[in-house]
Specification:
- With 219 residues, the protein is α+β, with helices and mostly antiparallel strands.
- It has a single domain, classed as 3-Layer(aba) Sandwich (Glutaredoxin), CATH 3.40.30.10.
- It contains nine helices and six strands.
- A four-stranded mixed sheet has the order 2-1-3-4. The chain has a two-stranded antiparallel sheet with strand order 5-6.
- Strand 1, helix 1 and strand 2 form a beta-alpha-beta unit.
- The chain is globular.
- The chain starts with a strand and ends with a helix.
Length: 219
């Protein structure tokens, strides 16, 4: 089976990155291709020195989910106190999984954590939730991941990615790099009634033709 090797810079709590990854994974399945994704972090909370505001994320999620109902996203239904204030533990778990078990296992965990947050309103800041979600991933060894997280594995990698993103001029979440092609938040046509966080988002269109450009870099 043909494989496309790529790097995706993203924040696990970024709806735009989650949309891009869902689009990539679905297109690869439909075309009978494998994805070898190196997940690198663009940790918004480190760039902005604050948690990403829930009110702003709610607007973005509603705009995306209203157009792309196939994603299965739902409004946050958990208690307010259980809303994740940080995504660093979840991103660290993905990086720790990649270091131990490779990109395929890490991508399974990344996808499962995003589903837990966007579809099932789970607090993926918590180690117990991360490990429970990891149990759904066939290539992730839960016991090994538990030991890695207890030892702090992956945290340094998140901070290293943050510094690398600044040094390399990564433009945001998501940025997709494959075979000399670099795309930032591809396919999105949107506008705001006022500034982000102040007005309402209108997602005018989402053109997934960019996926063919990425998949064409495979072998």
């Amino acid at each position: 089976m043909a494989t496309t090797t790529l790097t995706v810079w993203s924040d696990l709590g970024c709806p735009w990155a989650t949309l891009a990854l869902a689009t990539l994974r679905r297109a690869a399945r439909e075309r009978g291709r494998e994805l070898d994704i190196e997940h690198r972090n663009f940790p918004l909370e480190l760039f902005n020195s604050r948690p990403t505001p829930k009110a702003e994320l709610d607007i973005e999620v509603a705009g995306i989910a209203g157009l792309r109902t196939d994603l299965g996203w739902r409004p946050w239904s958990g208690p307010a106190a259980s809303y994740p204030v940080t995504m660093i533990p979840a991103m660290a778990a993905v990086r720790a999984t990649a270091a131990r078990a490779g990109n395929r296992a890490a991508d399974q965990l990344d996808a499962a954590l995003r589903a837990a947050f966007y579809r099932h309103s789970r607090c993926i800041s918590l180690t117990s939730v991360i490990l429970d979600v990891a149990g759904e991933c066939p290539d992730v060894h839960g016991g090994a991941l538990a030991a890695d997280l207890a030892a702090g594995a992956g945290i340094q990698a998140v901070h290293d990615d943050w510094r690398a993103a600044r040094d390399l001029g990564v433009q945001g979440s998501p940025q997709i790099e494959a075979g000399g092609v670099t795309l930032t938040n591809p396919g999105v046509e949107m506008s705001w009634s006022a500034g982000p966080g102040e007005g309402f988002l209108r997602l005018d269109a989402y053109d997934d033709a960019w996926v063919d450009q990425v998949l064409a870099t495979g072998r």
